[in-house]
Amino acid sequence: MVQKDFEIIDHTADVGIVAYGGDIGQAFGNAALALFSLITDLDSVAEVVCRDTELSAVDEESLLVAWLNELIYLFDTEHIVFRRFDVAVLPGVVLRARSYGEKVDGSRHRLKTGVKAATYHMLRVEQDNGCRVRVILDI
Fold it and tell me: Burial letters for 55-78: b for 16+ Cβ neighbours within 10 Å, e otherwise?
């Protein structure tokens, strides 16, 4: 059975993401993929620009929130939608990532959901035979 990359879960006025991966970096990348799948149709996004990100945090849960909020910031300020993520989470709770996508083009990208922020509500990072992360997004 092939495991899915992520699921979108309902949560009162917000939306939740559960993402999976063989390791924490892949799960964080799939959480980012889920985030942008809420914003636009990923099939319409080309990989013509990339952005490198390096973040650190006190724990893996805080790192996940910081990572997703950094991507939301890039979307809000540079108007970039991303569709592919190479993510490594290193000892000392450091994330290094390269994200691939392109500037929003109104003729090709239909924006669906406005995401304000990743939150700490119901936040979870579980590592046991792979990795599963859950985060609630403020929309």
Answer: bebeebbbbbbbbbbbbbebbeee
Residue 128 lies in a domain: no
**Token pair of 37, please?**
């799948």
Please report whether residue 57 resides in a domain: yes
In the numeric block, the tokens 């540079």 are attached to 78
What is the rounded distance in angstroms from the CA atom of residue 31 to the CA atom of residue 16?
Answer: 10
The two tokens of residue 105 are: 């083009």
Could you tell me if residue 26 is inside a domain?
yes
pLDDT tens figures, 54-97: 999 999 999 999 999 999 999 999 999 999 999 999 999 999 99
Amino acid residing at 123: L
Tally of domains in the chain: 1
What is the pLDDT at residue 7? 94
Contact status, residue 32 vs residue 87, Cβ threshold 8 Å: yes
Three-state secondary-structure class, residue 16: strand
